[in-house]
Amino acid sequence: MALLLGIAVVGLFGHRPLLWLADRRLDPTILLTGWLLSTVGLIVSTVATISLFALPADEHPASGIFRLAGGCWTALSSGSLPGWREGLASLGVIGAATILLRIGWAVTARRRRSRKTAPHVEQLRLLAAGAPSGDPLWVRDDRPLAMSIGGRPGVIVMSDSLRHHLTPGALAATLEHERAHLRGRHHLLVAIVETLAAALPLSPLLRAAPAALEDLIELAADAQAARRCGPAAVQEALSRLTGQPTPAVGLAMASRLTQARLRRLSTGSVGATRAMRVAGCTAVGVAALSLPAAAGWLALNVVGCVVA
Ligand SMILES: [Zn+2]
């Protein structure tokens, strides 16, 4: 029951501490970790916990994985579960199945949508196949355009007019920004939280995740580009590319939050140091994973009891 309460609290209010930390300008990589682990963790713990209703957990004081609690298997096989437990068990199964079916539906809908642009993306991948990995595919276009398309292999597309619009330093920063998106698998992260939000829009945490993640990946890519090319180069690239039309697929350089990003770069910020990022990610990870860990511990206890 305490676990269910924890799930409800995280599902309803889990976005608040993350948004509060974002207001305090915590390193974007740490926040990305927090959002991803808390959204995926919420789903995993919810499904695990309510599935456990189907097992006769209350029959025993299950206090350890290896504790051989007698009688529960007998209770299960002889069908001597009390009536209310049977009701709870079927509710648990229905709840878990509904969540999994909704996620399945959201994945299918997403696939169907991406099939429309698939031929174009495939063409770009083929064209980029000859270039060394990490190099952009240069296309002829008068509009300055820089974007990355996720997947295997990822593709960076840049228009040749960028060379006229940007200094070599800013051009290198733009390329580093797009490379950071591919290295960080940012397209995949956004796809995961968008799918979960579409599947289970009732949870404010899941609903808030896509917009927060889309902003954070831009900040994280800026920080990585700033570490390699200097904040001034990224700032120049961003201010020159602002206002360009955003493509239908992939992540464009100056699509979101440009004013806030420019402000952050103007302070010379390149994000936290590597050690600070690792420490921060670990701290956020421990906090975000405490709920799934508790659900996993309970699951091991219950399953251990049933098979014992
Ligand atoms: Zn970007």
From TrEMBL:
Its cofactor is Zn(2+). GO terms for biological process: proteolysis. The lineage of its organism: Bacteria, Bacillati, Actinomycetota, Actinomycetes, Geodermatophilales. Residues 146-200 form the Peptidase M48 domain. Keywords: Hydrolase, Membrane, Metal-binding, Metalloprotease, Protease, Transmembrane, Transmembrane helix, Zinc. GO terms for molecular function: metal ion binding; metalloendopeptidase activity. Binds 1 zinc ion per subunit. This is Peptidase M48 domain-containing protein. The keyword Cell membrane does not apply. The chain crosses the membrane at residues 31-53, 88-107. Belongs to the peptidase M48 family. The keyword Secreted does not apply.
